[in-house]
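Annotators were shown the component list below and the corresponding predicted structure, then asked to write short factual statements about the assembly.
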Amino acid sequence: MKKRGRGLGCAWYGTGYGNGFPDVSSAFVEIHDDGSVSVLTGAIDVGQGSSTIFAQIAAEELGIDADEVTVISGDTDTTPDSGTSAATRHTYNTGNAVIKAVTQAKAGLLAYAARALHCTSADGIELKDHRVRVKGEPARSLPLAEVVSQARLDGERFLGSESYTARTTRVNPETGQGSPYWPYAFGCQVAEVEVDTETGNVRVLKVVAAHDLGKAINPLQAEGQIAGGIAQGVGFALLEEVQLSEGQIKNPSLSQYLIPTVLDTPEIHAILVEEPEETGPYGAKGLGEPAMLPTIAAIVNAIDDAVGVRITSLPATPEKILAALAGPSKT
Amino acid sequence: MYYIRPQTLAKALEAGEEPGMLYLAGGTDLILKLRRREVQARGLVDLQAVAELRQIRAGGDWLEIGAMVSFADLLNNDTAAQEARALWLACSSMGAPQIRNQATLGGNLANCSPAADSLPALLVLQAQVRLLSRSGEVLLPLAEVLGRTPLWQPGTLLAGFRLPLRAGVSGFAKLGRRQALAIARLSAAVALREENGRACGVRVAFGAAGKRAFLSLDLAEELNGLVLDRGFTELACRQAKKVISRALGERASAPYKKEAVAGVVREALRTMEFVTSGEHADVDRKGGRGNED
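Structure shown to annotators:
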């Protein structure tokens, strides 16, 4: 018989290296005389989309389009170290470094533009729609590329070189007090599963996932990260297991170590919760790892809801479920 | 290594008779075995260009399926979908689209993995196997071929399968660890004719429960003549546990498989194109998931 159940999983996750370890990201920025920009950073985009985020951040700060930003990343000959693509840290940590570096490059540009536009202070200048404008008086404006190009002929260069360090502290081993991570990410998911009581097979039908990411700088990528996290969570909960025998891995290939296929991936409904993180770029914080964490508990709880058995070791294989069903029933 | 790609059956047979030459069908198993050095060959006779081996033909009382028909070819054939439903379902459950495009039904038998997806279905569909050699052509029941080791003598070319048309309804289900690219952990195929609400000519076969797919004559006998109602399904599921328990003996997988087979047989019956009881009324014809409660 096939029975359905629903389960809830919640997660909180400290992003970044944490516990007072220096978590440093760096970026170099140059504004070019055609109005385009280069961002150099050691942060590696392994598919999670960090380079896109950095392009969006630089473009937002300079009033240009993201496709006018060239992000050069992960080249040890040319890019400054930004640490690992790990710990759900690049949007927050390296994103902050990019903002700081762009702000530095932009400061020189604003000062030059104030003179060119006969404005008494750089504070009165803004960059918008590819133009350098006097705030409150949009008619007084010049094309960004023209200003940068003229500045270049006058010997000006608009460069930025900055770092950002996350503000964590070591935990006091006596009191347990401290600020070991900054910021924290939160997520909650509900899974609906169908369990076959004869075969023990579990199908995850649907997952609804709500995640606090501060600010969705790229909502499509955020939904993609949630979908990817849930697919990995399904694998963690139901399939993935490194089998060891006397120290040797018995299933060292993807034909033996099974991960979910697209047909095993449930319908996914992502809810982006934007509770601003005041230290993050535009209020943003990381989402990558937190997206898979609640899935596992949600699925295991949904199995319990469906057939009344508590699975306490992963993966929750059909064998374990049948054995639990055959055992003494839960009161 | 030699590589030959003949265009005719005669040329293929001639090339295959040379010592150490192996026939290459889709290669989804053979190439891996060669790479792992589990199989040695002087050369390969690629059958891809022999047009006769790639046909599906319905004529008279028979459905002819060439050995080089791919899983995808079979899935795209309407006659096969209707007349050989168990086989169609088995093909749809195998691998993923890329593998189904490449892998062939002939190769599935020649490789003869315990978990070969097509074999339980071909068994219940009463497939005969067409074998060619220098001494001519023979047609043998698949069940008989599966009883031999090796399946056939060197120099023999598997040309295809012959299935009787209008032989009743059939179904298939498979237990895998995931929904695609899953090796069968257990599979079941069922075929029967309905006469006055009773089951006639019942055939049940299992895969991945022993060295090779097999027909269970005991189970077929117990089900023959019974009224096709919910009780039929329950009896089939219950008795299948005994069959699998006997087939697997003390194997490590036995405790799980002898229980799980009930769910597999239930699913196989559910995929058949007729309603055996009220509970099957909403069954998706393509064998999709139905909700029983």
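Statements collected:
1. The CA atoms of residues 251 and 257 of chain A lie 5 Å apart.
2. The mean pLDDT of chain A is 96.
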